Amino acid sequence: MSLTNADRYTFSYDPSSFSSGSWNDAIAHLPGAHILQTWQWGQFKAITGWQPLPVAWRNSQGQIRAAALVLERTALRRIIPGGLKILYVPRGPLADWHDLALARQVIEDLEAFTKERGAIFIKIDPEIILGSGVPGSEDDRPDPGGQRVVAEMQARGWRFSQDQIQFRNTVWLDLSGDEAQWMARMKQKTRYNIRLARRKGVQVRAGSAADFPLLYRMYAETSVRDGFVIRSEEYYDRLWRAFLEQGMAEPLIAQVDDQAVAGVFLFYFAGRAWYLYGMSRDAHREKMPNYLLQWEAMRRASERGCRLYDLWGAPDEFNENDSMWGVFRFKEGLGGSVIRTAGAWDFPARPLLYSLYTQVLPKILDVMRNRGKNRTRREVSL
After folding, report:
1. Pick from 369, 48, 379, 44: which is nearest to 213 by CA?
2. Among 314, 21, 321, CA closest to 172
3. From CA 139, how far away is CA 132, in angstroms rounded?
4. Pick from 368, 367, 361, 343: nearest CA to 86
5. Residue 294 burial (CB count, 10 A)
6. What is residue 20's predicted lDDT score, i.e. its pLDDT?
7. E strands present in 293-332
8. What are phi and psi of 69, to 5 degrees?
9. H or E element that contains 240
10. What are phi and psi of 127, to 5 degrees?
11. Contact, 264 vs 277, CB < 8 A?
12. Apex CA 27: angle with CA 6 and CA 119, to 5°?
């Protein structure tokens, strides 16, 4: 099936036609509406060197049927004269991916847009769902619609990206029903640990911007303990502040005897909550503060009208050797459902330069990650 000229949607790139409110309103009702596609995310990334480019697809009545907040930047300036322009769509485009005709036009127009901008490639990372449940389990439910879109991209020369920026798979919590129903969906051990945390005196409070240094310190300790790389304190201060001030995020902090032992930073948009950042200390871990913290996060999200809580991240391979396995088991215990997506895909508009970029970038990233780990270790040891 292909769109006729009369059926095709109108693709437009006109930044002046959007503002914070109008863009967010336009995308809030699209399938897969995501915090990383909001106007605020684009403005924050602009501080870090990206230029946000909002694009949309409208039907004949002028209604937006698909949209993408495209981020553009020039990379490798120090290595290649003039650098290389790249495009990235974090957790987008937003569209009904089961509408294959619309999906085809979105993909086709992004290819043309990439060439018009002179970029060497575009990376997209939409919520094209390939299935739900752990593969091979009784809950495994493949999604043929998502698989058709992937086949379409492959046929057009798109490549599964070597650089997966976001988690490919995640865990969703259903916040419909009452708290008794939430508890019923949890595993028995999880319910026990929530009650244990209460008995052991764990308390959870809402945080504020004044808590950002504390949250970063705990986050740095977590990164050193668990072996992942984080950015500078200034980066997170700007990010958290931007969304907190817009009422689109808030931190929650778990305490024992007034000592902060764990925290989460929640984001809210379009009836959905995201657990993008979590941090904890080794102190009082036997009191299970993270369990009560997530319970309170579910309650706060529900109070804000959210019916879905995205726990943000699940293994690529569902076995005990995956580094995400322990975290996944914790999330699964909360009653979550595994959502498997297509991950990030690249369209190499300039294949030779794309190959050069993908060969050089991993080496640069390795150096940057090692520097980041060393910097964080020094901060934690101070």
Report:
1. 379
2. 314
3. 7
4. 361
5. 26
6. 74
7. 308-310
8. -90, 100
9. helix 233-245
10. -85, 70
11. yes
12. 75
Q: In the numeric block, which tokens belong to residue 181?
A: 């129903």
Quick one: which of 261, 267, 262 has its CA closest to 294? 262
Q: Which residue type is seen at 254?
A: A
What number of CA atoms fall less than 13 Å from residue 27's CA on the CB side? 27
Q: CA-to-CA distance for 27 and 67, rounded, in angstroms? A: 7
| pLDDT tens-digit map of 316-340 | 999 999 988 999 999 999 999 999 9
pLDDT value, residue 367? 53
Residue 332 one-letter amino acid: E
Structure tokens at 130: 């390939």
Hey, CA dihedral for 115, 117, 120, 122, is it positive or negative?
Answer: negative
Give the CA count within 13 Å in the CB-facing half-sphere of 32. 23
Distance CA 251, CA 253 (A): 7
> What ranges make up the beta strands (E) of the chain?
10-13, 51-58, 64-75, 84-89, 121-124, 129-132, 141-142, 159-160, 169-174, 202-206, 249-256, 259-269, 272-280, 308-310, 337-341, 345-348
Instruction: Identify the residue whose tokens are 């052991």.
Output: 200
Query: Which residues, at least 6 apart from 99, have a Cβ–Cβ distance to it below 8 Å?
Result: none
State mean pLDDT over 174-190: 97
Structure tokens belonging to residue 334: 């909360």
> Is there a contact between 84 and 67 (Cβ–Cβ < 8 Å)?
no
Closest by Cα among 280, 283, 339, 285 to 315:
339
The three-state secondary structure class of 87 is: strand
pLDDT band at 1 (very low <50, low <70, confident <90, very high): very low
The tokens for 55 are: 């694009």
Nearest to 225 by CA among 279, 287, 166: 279
Please report where in the chains the tokens 């964080």 appear, as a residue.
Answer: 376
